[in-house]
Sequence to fold (295 residues):
Amino acid sequence: METEVRLAERFDADRGHLRAVAYRMLGSLDEADDAVQETWLRASRTDIGEIANVTGWLTTIIGRICLDMLRARRRRGEEFTAEPLAATASGAGPEEEAVLAESVGLALLVVLDTLGPAERVAFVLHDLFAVPFTDVAAILERSPVAAKKLASRARGRVRGAPAVPPADLMRQREVVGAFLAASRAGDLEALLAVLAPDVVRRTDRVAPGGEAEVRGARRIAEETLTNTARARVAALALVDGEIGLVVAPRGRLLLVLRPKVDGDRVTFVDVIGDPARLRGLRIASPPGRDIENSR
Fold:
């Protein structure tokens, strides 16, 4: 009875940590909560009297559960999920998950969703939660060397490789960041200031009554202001080595915007929504704070 009480107390103390680990591995709050509940069911069948590091032991259990869930998801062909915006960003989905996704980093969640199950588990546990590779290896049933290679490969995917010099990348980030900030704020004048007068917007996902191509700063700015819900679930990302935007309600990729920057203005915006095209993009976290703020 004493060990059961001790386990319950420790589990309650570690619940937030376990939920955070599971959310980053699964990208879904509902699934993360299911994983936490399954962790409790498995842990409660064990006598913890001889376990020195209960938190580490619980983390190992939830790591194995998440790995199984990721593998099952992949077998069902669910590794890529482009979800309708209305189903995920306007009240149908839990508000808490939207807030959590933003705090983790929308771009990071999108990138994690492109990793294989073993890569994702190795990266999240080691790089984001400092779990030793010996423990990661036990979860993956591989050697520590193999676990290190998986994490290294995932790290490379998450960080990406810029295709332009650092100065150009910084300028792109400033301009595209200003475009995103103006879009979120609904600031028409700020949008006009960052868009070139002859800017062109093209999309492969035309809404009913919409146009595949729109020209001119004012038309594009006004159109942008009709999509503030998308701006709220957009984030900077590295797209094929340059700064772009991912529109990812609750971390689920919906659209990618690839702006072209000339000087301090956006001259062209390619809006990509076709699933085949989205799968062909190399998306990574932008240089900066995304990974550092993801724990």
Q: What stands out?
A: Residues 80-93, 289-295 have pLDDT under 50 and may be disordered. The CA atoms of residues 192 and 217 lie 6 Å apart.
